[in-house]
Amino acid sequence: MLGLVVREYTQTALPVGSKGLVSQYGLDISSATVRNELARLEDRGLLSHPHTSAGRVPTESGYRYFVENLMPERELPLTERLRIRHQFHQLGLELNQWLQLSAAVLADTVRNAAWVTAPKAPTAHFKHLEMIATYGNAILLVLVFQDGTVRQQGLLAREAIGQVDLSNMSDRLSAMCRGLAPAEIRDLDGELSGFEKEVLGLIASAMVEIDQSAAVESYHEGVRHLLEQPEFRDSANIGQVMRLLESDWLAPSLLPGVFAADGITVIIGGGSGRLDSGDLGLVLSRYGVDQELVGALGVLGPIRMHYERVIPAVRYMAQLLSGLIWDLFGPGEKRRTPGSLPSDTGAQ
Fold first, then answer.
1. Domain residues for 48?
2. Taking the CB of residue 272, how many other CB atoms lie within 10 A of it?
């Protein structure tokens, strides 16, 4: 009975009554019997009874019980998967384009707000260095790390160094440091000049700063879908959602748990201790190459969101993005053909 109330309230956003359930679902029992069952569910804290209505609505606990115990595991319909794949086939292997499109497609698919973070490595690893002579003794260091992060660092040498010598040193240091973590770069030994040791120190320091930074680049879309829903007709409610999407709160508060989880994370209401408001629900998943490069994506909407549709959509989008990260950054001998997407013939 709880499942029927959740599904009906999800569709209508109106309190659900016993007579409506009997009529809508053709139940072979009386409305009095349904009313008694709804009262028992209310006593268990799974439904609530608005004072102005004879109907009932699911509580946060009711939604959690539904998602954890009653909701069947579904795949996103094949037509939806093909539609999404078609949109992604239009792009090349540009990570920022994929992230922006992921947020937009996910939001349009589930008619709620979608949020995607750029992938980040647990520990920065070096990829490439380019040193450029600018003016006088000043040198610009362009540092590229394996997760695609680029940093620029200024350095003032004791004396002017020609561009040819800087390029040769860049190639040499790049070969020495490729794939190393900050501590490994600091421990490098060999025939290095004082200038080269100084450069290695700057590289290691820049990598440590990246590791310690909580900032995560993110993309969000779909606020217009929230505006269409009754829960967000109040400007204060939509303002709260905008603050969540545009602030850094989501990343440091939720990402560690999402990265540690095996599969989908569903956060329902303020009683979870992880959302400030009891009016919101959040469905999240990690994506990427485990232990190497990981990001998160998810859907933020009313607690009344259609979890049976949202969860398969988030799972499928995470699969697509994981494939992209594997193409861009995974071990070369194990990569799929660039631009290929996961098969739609198997289980999600």
1. 2-70
2. 15
Measured distance CA(203)–CA(224) in Å, rounded: 43
Q: Tell me: pLDDT of 346 over 50.
A: no
CA 163 to chain centre: 42
Which stretch of DSSP H or E encloses residue 266? strand 265-268
3-class secondary-structure state, position 94: coil
8 A C-beta contact, residue 56 and residue 5: yes
Query: For residue 233, what are the CA distances in angstroms to 111, 114, 230, 238, 303?
Result: 15, 19, 5, 7, 15
Q: Tell me, what DSSP letter sits at residue 70?
A: I
**Number of C-beta neighbours around residue 67 at 10 A:** 18
Q: Is 42 helix (H, G, I), strand (E, B) or coil?
A: helix
CB 217 within 8 A of CB 118: yes
Instruction: Write the DSSP symbol of residue 248.
Output: S
Pairwise CA distance, residues 301 & 241, whole Å? 8
Q: Which residues, 6 or more positions from 247, have their beta carbon under 8 angstroms from its beta carbon?
A: none
Which CATH number characterizes residue 42's domain? 1.10.10.10
Residues 6+ apart with CB under 8 A from 255: 117, 216, 296
Q: Coil, strand, or helix at residue 288?
A: strand
Split into its structural domains, the chain has a count of 3
Which of 4-8, 145-149, 310-314 shows the highest mean pLDDT?
310-314
Q: By the 8 A CB rule, do 130 and 169 touch?
A: no
Closest CA to 219 of 316, 336, 298, 157: 298
Locate 272 and state its tokens. 């979870």
Q: Give me the percent of the chain exceeding a pLDDT of 70.
A: 86
In this structure, what CATH number is given to the domain that contains residue 144? 3.30.390.60
Residue 100, classified by CB atoms within 10 Å of its CB into exposed (0-12), middle (13-18) or buried (19+), is middle
Domain boundary among 160, 180, 212: 212
* CA pair distance 273, 259, nearest whole angstrom: 18
Q: Do 279 and 234 share a structural domain? A: yes
